[in-house]
Amino acid sequence: MNEFLGKKSYGSSNFKDPGLFDTRLTSRGIEQAKDLNKVLVQRLESGESFDLLVASPLHRTLQTATLAFEGLEHIPRVVNPLVRERMWLSSDVGTDPASLQAEFGPLGWDCTDLPARWWYHNDNWENEKE
Q1: SS3 45
Q2: Domain residues of the chain, as ranges?
Q3: How does pLDDT run across 23-49, given as a tens digit for each residue?
Q4: Neighbour-count burial of 79, counting CB atoms closer than 10 A to its CB (0-12 exposed, 13-18 middle, 19+ buried)
Q5: Global pTM?
Q6: Pair 82, 94: CB distance under 8 Å
C-alpha cells in the first residue's frame, strides 16, 4: 500500500482505495527489514537486550518483525491486535487467524487466540474519518 500511496496520495483528488487487503511487504520492504536485522544484532552484541517483541496481526507487521528479528528467536513474541491501524484503507483489513497461524506459527508467533475478526471493524467506519 505504501508503494501505491507513493504514487497516489491518500486524500488526493480522484483517490480510490485499490483494494489491497492485508498487504505484504514489497521486495524493498523485505530488504529494509533485513537491514534492520543487522542493526538489531549489533545492538544485542553491544550489550542491549530486548525483553519482548510485540506485533499486530497484520501480515506486513508479522513479516517485518520476523525478518528484523531473524536469528533472535530467543526473544518472546506476542501477537496483539490492539497495536494495529484503525481502518483507513483496505490494507488495514486483516487475515483470519488460522491462515496467520499456518504461516507465522512455525516462526514463533501464536495467532490461535485471536478473534475470528480481530481487525478494527465498524459498519460506520467511513463516516468516522470526517
Answers
A1: helix
A2: 2-7+18-119
A3: 899 999 999 999 999 999 999 999 999
A4: buried
A5: 0.80
A6: no
